[in-house]
Amino acid sequence: MGWPGHDWWDPHRAETEAAFVALVRAIAEGEAVHVLARPEWADAARAALGGAATVHPARVGDVWLRDTAPIFVAGPDGPAAATFRFNGWGGKYLYAGDTEVAAQVAALSGLPAVDHAFTLEGGGVDVDGEGTAITTRECLMNPNRGGADEAVWADRLRASLGVERVLWLDEGLAFDHTDGHVDGVARFTAPGVAVRVASSGPGDPHHARLEAIERALAGATDARGRAIEVVPLPSPGAVRAPDGEIMPASYANFYIANHAVIVPVFGAPTDDAACGVLRDLFPGRRVVPLDARAIVVGGGAFHCTTQQQPEFDADA
To answer: What sign results for the dihedral spanned by CA atoms 89, 297, 274, 25?
Structure first.
C-alpha cells in the first residue's frame, strides 16, 4: 500500500488518513501490511498507523498501488513479480515516483522481477487464477495506453499473466478517472464465479454501462470451459463528492484478505445488501464494511489502494 501523503489530499486529509488507517488495521488482522511512503511522509505514516504496518521510505506518488505495483504470478520458473509500464492512467495524473513503484515493490518482495514493455494497470484486469481474465476495451484498448487490439492483448496477457481466455466488456463505470477499470464493475470471487455490478435503475448514472455488462457476461465460459456463475452485486447509485461530482463508487472494489473481505461502503441504502451478497460468496471469511467515501473522492477504493503478494505453494 502507499501512504496518502500527496498534497492532493490536503482538503480532506484528516478524513482520508482515518479511512486509510482503518483499512490497514482491518487487513493487518490477518496478514502483514507494508506501506510505502516518501521519506518526508514516513514519520507521519508510522505515527498514524501505530505499528499496524511496516512503513518503507520509498519513491512513491500516490496510494494507487493496484496500478503502480507489480502483479505477482506463479510461472514456469517459480513465483515472480510481473512489472509493467505505468503512464498515469493515460497521462492524466503523473505523480513523481509512481513509475518507480513496481521495481521497488519487486525488490522488497524478494522475488525476481519480470518486466513487460507495455502499459497495464492492475485494476484494469481481474483474473480467476486458472487462466481466465475479465477486462474492458475502454481501458486496455484506449489510445492513451497504446491502442492495441484484442489479439495483441490476448498475446500479452497470456505471456505476462498466464491468461488463456479473455472476457471483454466494452466499458467500466461512468465518471471513472481510470478509463473504465474492470475492478469497478466485475470481479472473480472464485474460479467459475464472478460478481457484476447491477444497475439500481434508469436513474443510476452507470445504468447503460451496467446493462451492457450484464448482456456481455450472459452465458460466459472460462478457460476450462465452465459456465461462469455471474452474481449481481448492487450498485450504490450516484455517490457524490463534497463538490457534487459523481464518484466511481462500487462495492466491487473490495479487497480479499486472508481472513476477511474488506468492502467499501458509501452510506447508501444498498450497503447492507451488497455486504450480504459478498458474505454468501465468501463463507470462509468475515465481511468487513468500511466507509470509503474519503478515499473514493480520489477516484478509487480498497482494491485500488492495495496489491497483494500471495503465498505460493512450493509446487506452483
So the answer is: positive
